[in-house]
Design a protein that fits this description.
Blueprint: E1 6-10, H1 13-25, E2 30-33, H2 39-42, E3 50-54, H3 62-79, E4 83-87, H4 101-111, E5 117-120, E6 128-131, E7 134-138, E8 144-146, H5 165-170, E9 177-180, H6 182-186, H7 190-199, E10 204-207, H8 212-226, E11 231-235, H9 237-249, E12 271-274, H10 279-290, E13 294-297, H11 300-304, H12 307-322, E14 327-330, H13 342-360, E15 364-368, H14 370-377, E16 382-392, E17 395-402, E18 407-411, H15 420-426
């Protein structure tokens, strides 16, 4: 197979495109697929050096993972890249029953002969930090909070109520997890500390990540270790950013695409669909509605049980777009107290999106919500996504390949500034 540097599996779609952005910043030719790629899929990017598989394990049970992840990891190992990355959100939200990172780590470790698994969660470019094993993240107001005091502590499905990531993982796995402190990394002893933990029998090792220079050091030591044996790693897009720096340091000089001019302002209105319940998305929705976007509020319970209501919403959206209005369909305005509609709502939003795009020939779409995006995009008949442009850190604009030819942005709930909908529309 090709001379690959890296493969990854994203536990949701928004996080998967975040990795595409990091690879683009390093100039690494890459594509994101929806299943282990065929020869025909790989031909979409002739110069391919890295690829991802967009998954949905973040919203699935350990039983689902045990049925679906082994084949994916075997495929990635067979591709021959030195590093395979199980990509998770930098907020690390997960639980023993839903999106279990511990379960995925067990499966990946077994698929790679039981080698020690590095865990790199901190992503300074996203203002997510790991210090002394505890996770901190910036909130919508810019303040950096310990994750158990952050809005993610109130996530409707996987609330983060434990900041110590080793303790958090201990509820999900029996694997022994060691820790490399930021002081070891700053002293230049990161590789020695990792090797010592490995020799002592650690199944996995969590790295502190507070500043970008530490991330660069981590990338170099992991790339060095991967040169000795294929590596399976767990982490956020911070791990990808670390590896990009390591590749530069060893002389793999690609042409960075991060400064390429953005595409022109979208021709025609923007279509946005949101299943996010986050405070950040609520602020963005309110800003958009106050600045000319047409809003179509969705009642998930009513919508899921009534096909005629679904078609009425699609018709309303088509009419709005036909009038030249930027249009957003949303199922929540901030946190909700009722049960999450989950995969069923996401799948329905995907079907509705496809119908609206086909009827209007709209050229750019925004999807909001990690779980929503994972389930919605699978309804679009796509083969792959490739990077198109940088919109906002963590949310690139992508080009679709398959049944629809559009520009697509996938936004996690916590991502983006208040005027993000306008940013996507105007590029």
């Amino acid at each position: 197979m090709r001379d690959l540097l890296y493969t990854y599996y994203g536990d949701d779609f928004t996080g998967s495109t975040d990795v595409l952005e990091q690879l683009a910043r390093g100039g690494i030719p890459a594509a994101l697929f929806f299943a282990p790629p065929t020869v025909e899929d790989l031909a979409l990017v002739p110069e391919l050096r890295a690829y991802g598989i967009a998954g949905e394990s973040r919203s699935q049970s350990p039983e689902w993972m045990k049925q679906n992840l082994p084949a994916v990891f075997r495929s990635s190992r067979a591709a021959g890249a030195p590093i395979t990355h199980y990509k998770v959100c930098s907020t690390f939200d997960s639980s023993p029953s839903i999106g279990s990172i511990g379960c995925a780590m067990e499966i990946g470790r077994e698929s790679f002969d039981g080698h020690t698994v590095p865990i790199v969660v901190g992503a300074p470019h996203l203002r997510r930090y790991v210090w002394r094993g505890r996770l901190y993240a910036a909130g919508p107001d810019g303040r950096v909070l310990r994750i158990d005091r952050h809005a993610m502590s109130r996530h409707p499905v996987t609330p983060m109520r434990e900041a110590d990531l080793r303790k958090h993982l201990c509820a999900q796995t029996t694997l022994r997890i060691d820790h490399v402190d930021y002081r070891n990394i700053r002293r230049g002893d990161g590789f020695g500390a990792f090797a010592k933990a490995t020799t002592a029998g650690a199944d996995a090792v969590l790295f502190d990540t507070v500043h970008a220079p530490e991330l660069r050091t981590i990338g170099k030591l992991l790339w060095r270790a991967a040169g000795q044996q294929q590596m399976f790693a767990v982490g956020s897009s911070g791990l990808t950013a670390a590896l990009v720096e390591a590749w530069r340091d060893v002389g793999l000089n690609f042409v960075s695409r991060s400064d390429v001019s953005l595409p022109p302002k979208v021709r025609g209105p923007l279509l946005a669909l949101s299943g996010s319940c986050s405070v950040a998305t609520e602020r963005q929705l309110r800003w958009a509605l106050a600045h000319g976007f047409a809003g179509i509020a969705l009642d998930p319970e009513e919508l899921l049980g009534d096909a005629s209501r679904q078609q009425a919403v699609v018709a309303q959206a088509i009419q709005s777009i036909g009038q030249g209005r930027d249009t957003v369909l949303y199922s929540a305005m901030g946190p909700v107290s009722g049960p999450a509609s989950g995969s069923t709502l996401g799948e329905l939003l995907g079907v509705m999106m496809r119908q609206i795009v086909q009827a209007t020939h709209i050229s750019r779409v925004l999807l909001c919500g990690g779980d929503t995006s994972s389930h919605a995009v699978r309804q679009l008949g796509l083969r792959a996504l490739t990077w198109q442009a940088n919109l906002h850190t963590g949310v690139p604009l992508c080009r679709t390949h398959g049944a629809l030819d559009i520009e697509l942005a996938l936004k996690g709930g916590q991502m983006g500034d208040e005027d993000f909908f306008q940013v996507v529309r105007d590029a």
